[in-house]
Write a structure and sequence with these properties.
The complex is a heterodimer. Chain A is mainly β. Helix content of chain A is about 10%, strand content about 50%. In chain A, the strands form 3 sheets. A 5-stranded antiparallel β-sheet of chain A has the order 2-1-4-13-6, with no helix packed on it. A 5-stranded antiparallel β-sheet of chain A has the order 8-7-11-5-12, with no helix packed on it. Chain A has a two-stranded antiparallel sheet with strand order 9-10. The radius of gyration of chain A is 23 Å and the shape is flat. Chain B is mostly beta strands. In chain B, the strands form 5 sheets. In chain B, strands 13, 14, 16, 17, 18 and 21 form a 6-stranded antiparallel β-sheet that branches. Chain B has a 5-stranded antiparallel β-sheet with strand order 3-5-10-7-8, with no helix packed on it. The radius of gyration of chain B is 34 Å and the shape is rod-shaped. Chain B has 3 domains: about 10-65, no CATH class; about 70-200, Immunoglobulin-like (Sandwich); about 205-305, Immunoglobulin-like (Sandwich), CATH 2.60.40.2110. Helices cover about 0% and strands about 50% of the residues of chain B. The chains are: A mainly beta, B mainly beta. The interface between A and B is large, with 40 and 33 residues.
Chain lengths: ~160, ~300
Amino acid sequence: MNSTARVAVLAMSVGLQAAALANTPTVEVAVSAHKEIVTTDSAGKKAVKLVPATQAAAGDTIVYTLRAKNAGTGTAVDPRIEDPIPAGTVLVVDSVKKDGYRVEASLDNGSTWQAFPASVTRTTAAGQTETVPAPAESYTTLRWVLDGPMAPGDGKDVSFKVRIR
Amino acid sequence: MSRRLTTGVLCVAVWALAGTVTAIPSWAAGTRAGTNITNTARVDFKDVNGNNLFQLSNTVTTTVSQVGGVIVDPNNGPVSLDPGDVFYFPHVVTNAGNFDDYINLTAVSAGGWPVAIYRDVNGDGVYQPALDIPLLDSAGDADAIPDSGFLSDSGVGSSMRILVAVTVPAGTADGAADVTTVTGTSVFDPTKTDTATDTINVTSPNVAVVKSVGPVGPQPPGTILTYTIVVTNNGSAAANTVVLTDPIPANTTYQAGTITYNAAARTDGGDADNADYNVSNPGQITVAIGALAASGGTATVTFRVQIN
């Protein structure tokens, strides 16, 4: 190959990349952690305030908010937000906000998934198999699956709570 | 007594058996203070051409702060004790917080009875004077309140054993009861406390003497009078080494050989039987009754005199 041909190929390659970039989806997700502080005013009215959870005690509840947004230029297809339950915490099962997503749960660090809320089968003392809700402690990972497109500029927020062991 | 663990009430019989003191439970004190809890999410998606793409989120970090926690177990008793007795109640004190702490310990009797706290050095639940030392304030907190010393937040080092010695004051009435409350307080967070109780029921003998004479009413000189003395223990504890003494009344003469004990004849001499006249005590009847059972143990002594 001569040098002119090489330059032409290079130019074509750059052009292709530029075209692809123009339609590239980039879904970004930002995580924040807050604590719920219950305050009581002088009239005895209770209010829940969220403060950043830079510090929390064992037994406290942390609210995790996941803000997903397509910051790219192309449509994102089937975005899926995945978040492990942090080590040292237990999922508060009824706190999971679906927010239009199909939520799935894993009890084995993402190897297998099932619809949220998860269930487990166990053998009763009588030898029968029964299906029961999965214990909160058994959840390892959650994911929110948006079955469809997310246009540039679109976003979704989801949240869930955990309790510090 | 914590709600988290119910060891139940130990009975006296258990304390008497060496090595059967409740095992120290292991506590899940919570995630240790200083631990960082981190969370990073990931988002997977495709572009319109089906290429797989992903992004990782920022990482948020929450640092676990210290919480105090105290467990004092178990509630002991009730035990039945005599006035003057000292009883050593075993307790286990546990740091249920999530970081190293000291636990201040106090023990107060509701009735103001003398109470002392000892460190149960060998953990056997039994007081050994040469070994078990009074609980002191450790230099770790130096607040003039006796404490557990350094307790970690997990494992064997998170618990220690104490003995709470309660003295029943001499002269305490039969049937009296007392509760000593043992309180553990976290030095890190004094709002975190737990209590356990030691309950004592006092049992003491209560001996009553009833004397009667026959015939009753005015009698002329020369009449033989029979005295009957009934000794009864109405207390809830046995009376031991009970001795009855009774002077012969003035203006009467003891009739030799008339002592009976529970309807059996006794000699007057200082011999093997348990009664005498004018031997143990000059001019008196003396009967060594010995033990009288609790709640109604009784003995009956009779003798005769003649009015001069």
